[in-house]
């Protein structure tokens, strides 16, 4: 078993369940190691997402050794072992054919040699195995690259990207998550091979792209741009990078500005995607004022709210996030108190945008400032603070900003003799208008009285 010449000096903390799985496999005469992302992350003091185990045992042998297993990817050699409700993927050492998705090659061949299994892995930092008695098995110097903060392919970069082009995007994703640089030869091969990303499924691309933009370094999207990756997977970003903003309010092109905005919104899926696409229409709506050479982007928010869903659907994102992002993009440029700094103006804005995403709207507005020049920032920021303050008041006092929050319902109107049909909506709209002007009006008695004056005899609102 000691054929691997493990480095025993390096002790790694691994969870008891993982130790248990490894020792059961060993007691049955097989080899077993924790491997890949979990070892990399533990060495880096990051919290591993999940623990993967690689073993010389074949899937059916693994299944015999544990009480509870799931056949999650048995055709690729993976059995999920359940311990205390947590699943651990145990995969037989294998040599891969071409990949269909990030973990499942089209054909696999099992092997008895751990080193063969490590060879099939994408980057040196992901090809380190650990076993408590043998220590670290690190045949490609992944530790050295962790120390150098380097993403480097296992073996010849070009052929590794040829086998699976998704690895080109994964290189940038790991560089963004870990704050690492990409090795020179690896980068050269990425630039050469990036057109091959066209063969990769939208789901696989989306998953890596999402990890990239949700990381501490969404600015690495610019690396993806320079490597020719976005040209294939997100050509809209290339257009943003090539779209200047010639106005005193800005100091970056649209792409660089977009990165700043992403960096300044919270790390949630909705906010990062909305930030990525908030100005996506700018290149399309840009016009240059001949008098002074300044760029204008009239209508970019509403055009963007139509473009973003098309792109997000192409990336196979779920409808819920697509809808929410489109709503945020549509309103991100609203300046509700620019002319009238009043509580009513904020209530109207909350009515228009929606209470459910107003916090997120404010987050996007704030981040948008961080990506602009200092020109005009103070006034805008001052407005933003006022809106935040007024929004807090609205939330703390449950102030009504929508028809469904009125203290009267369509049923009440019908009970009062109002004909059914659109007139009910019209009356509620008219009542809401009064409540937006003065929230105190929102009592049941008041609204009943107001409604009585509006109920028509012939079916149309008075
Ligand atoms: P994460 O923290 O996102 O889970 P990870 O490194 O664990 O990162 P996974 O996609 O979960 O990444 O894959 C687990 C391991 O499988 C990787 O560390 C790597 O060794 C190997 N691997 C995954 N995808 C590929 C691929 N496309 N080509 C080669 N090896 C891969
Ligand atoms: Mg993983």
Write the layout of secondary structure elements.
Elements lengths: L15 H12 L4 E4 L1 H7 L8 E4 L3 H7 L3 E5 L4 E6 L2 E7 L1 E3 L2 E3 L2 E2 L2 E3 L3 H6 L9 E3 L3 E3 L4 H7 L1 E2 L5 H7 L2 H13 L2 E2 L1 H10 L8 H12 L7 H6 L3 H4 L1 H7 L12 H11 L4 H9 L4 H4 L1 E2 L6 E2 L3 H15 L4 H13 L11 H11 L1 H16 L6 H20 L13 H6 L6 H16 L6 H11 L8
Parallel strand pairs: 2-5, 12-13
Antiparallel strand pairs: 1-2, 1-10, 3-4, 4-5, 6-9, 7-8, 10-11, 14-15
How would you describe what is shown here?
Strand 10 and strand 11 (135-137) form a beta hairpin. The mean pLDDT is 94. The strands form five sheets. A seven-stranded mixed β-sheet has the order 3-4-5-2-1-10-11. A two-stranded antiparallel sheet has the order 6-9. The chain contains 23 helices and 15 strands. The chain has helices spanning 16-27, 37-43, 59-65, 114-119, 142-148, 157-163, 166-178, 184-193, 202-213, 221-226, 230-233, 235-241, 254-264, 269-277, 282-285, 300-314, 319-331, 343-353, 355-370, 377-396, 410-415, 422-437, 444-454, and strands at residues 32-35, 52-55, 69-73, 78-83, 86-92, 94-96, 99-101, 104-105, 108-110, 129-131, 135-137, 150-151, 181-182, 287-288, 295-296. The chain is α+β, with helices and mostly antiparallel strands and 462 residues long. The longest helix is centred in the last third of the chain and has 20 residues, at 377-396. Bound molecules: adenosine-5'-triphosphate (ATP) and magnesium ion (MG). Magnesium ion (MG) binds at residues 37, 49-50.
